[in-house]
Design a protein that fits this description.
heterodimer; A: mainly beta; six-stranded mixed sheet; four-stranded antiparallel sheet; 0% helix; B: mainly beta; seven-stranded mixed sheet; 11 strands
Amino acid sequence: AQTVTQSQPEMSVQEAETVTLSCTYDTSESNYYLFWYKQPPSRQMILVIRQEAYKQQNATENRFSVNFQKAAKSFSLKISDSQLGDTAMYFCAFMSPGGGADGLTFGKGTHLIIQP
Amino acid sequence: DTGVSQNPRHKITKRGQNVTFRCDPISEHNRLYWYRQTLGQGPEFLTYFQNEAQLEKSRLLSDRFSAERPKGSFSTLEIQRTEQGDSAMYLCASRSLGGHMNEQFFGPGTRLTVL
């Protein structure tokens, strides 16, 4: 079974700063997908960024980018020029497309607070 | 397309009662997922459907839980004889098989409180 670990329960930074959220995972699979989801207070979860394991190039979506280190099983999220609207719970998630298992495995989340 | 919807948004019930939640996925999505999220935790996978077929159930899904997707469109999740430990947010998600990067789209959730 896969596990996802987010070691930072809460982080707080000033607006416009850069912040990095860490995520490690454990799997014996060689092909899989990794995701970062954002869950704002009392709002639904939305996808921030995703990465296919076979792609060496790190994914980037505007102010969001990842540092994917496959050998180290690490998948960190960097948020540049942070904004007040980035305040939310951030979840790292893993999915293996093989076999019958298709659900996402989530970490416990990091509560990110952007201070004005 | 208005996204994934869930009803009710909140449910308060007494221990021992049965409850049923509904999820309406994005219309062209053939895969539908149920997750449970307790306070301070990430969502945990419960089960998923491809069209009307339930393809996988987590060990978290006890015998008191049953899910259906009778016509491959909306889905219901029923909890019988609720217990206080069932209090959680129940999330539904959907995706299109073969969709871009396997992205799952989540609904707003149903928050269950068992008194």
